[in-house]
Amino acid sequence: MSANSKANNTLLQRSLEKRGFTFGIGVAIIYAIWTLVVFFASAAITSIVLSLLSKVGVPIKTLPAALLQSIFSVAVYLLTLIIVIGVPYLLAKSKTTLVQLGVNRVLSWADIGLGLVGFIPYIAIKILLVTVVALLFSGYDGNQVQDIGFSSVSSQGNMILAFITLVIVAPVAEEIVFRGYLYGKVKKYIGTIGATLLVSACFGLVHLQPNLIVDTFALGVILCVLRELTGSIWAGVILHMIKNGIAFYVLFIANIL
Questions:
Q1: Which end of the chain has fewer surrounding CB within 10 Å, N or C?
Q2: In contact, 149 and 73? CB cutoff 8 Å
Q3: How many angstroms separate the CA atoms of 200 and 221, rounded?
């Protein structure tokens, strides 16, 4: 870390101490709400744009469903990143650094190893949370099937598209948005534990379905821990890919074997 960065962090810490922890929580919540609003707004905007393109004669509806879903997913992720990073910079010159995004270095072997090992505590936390939630809420359905947007992957081409979107694109994009942007922004205001809980809650909420909120919250906790341990998102990306890869196998590959 440069001398200027250390000086800026010291000034920020002193400023937060003067304003109080409540101020930090407020700022962190604003960042969380901003990220969630942008994510859902990006999905709505993308849907509207695709609908308008179809109405003006662009043959959107003739595209294979898997290709259309892949286009939709990539567009949502790109738009989310552009807005959450670009708008604050344009309006207030608020920069987001590569360090804050957790992409200031390349993937290492240590990241791969930690990503693999991280699957164990993720499962342990998931089992614990599911058990507690099931005891507290009798109607909780832990076996609810996730709606991932790909209803048909019968052909090899559709299977490849679904794999690239769900197992490669989604983990990278979601780690940049949540463990990168959001975690990198709120940690300095509410600390490591507060940032981990807030970011994991937001990550759970974007998945909407009750059982997935519990599952992705558990996953989010470990992903944040990996971000903190390594200083980057890459170990989390590996774990996220493993998790999504297993889900992809269960949903699509196992059914045709």
A1: C
A2: yes
A3: 6
Both ends of the chain: CA-CA distance in Å? 51
218: left (phi over 0), alpha (psi -120 to 50) or beta: alpha
Kindly state the tokens that stand for 17.
């101490």
**How would DSSP label each residue in 19-54?**
H-HHHHHHHHHHHHHHHHHHHHHHHHHHHHHHHHHH
Q: What is the spatial distance between Cα 194 and Cα 48, in angstroms, rounded to a whole number?
A: 36
- The DSSP call for residue 144 is P
Query: CA 71, CA 169: separation in Å to the nearest integer?
Result: 11
For 37-63, write each residue's pLDDT tens digit. Answer: 999 999 999 999 999 998 888 888 888
Dist. CA 140–CA 215, nearest whole Å: 13
At residue 80, the 3 state secondary structure works out as helix
- Rounded to two decimals, the pTM is 0.88
Average pLDDT over residues 244-256: 82
**63-100 pLDDT tens trace:** 888 888 899 999 999 999 999 999 999 999 889 999 99
Question: Residue 136's pLDDT band (boundaries 50, 70, 90)?
Answer: confident
Closest CA to 70 of 138, 159, 141, 154: 159
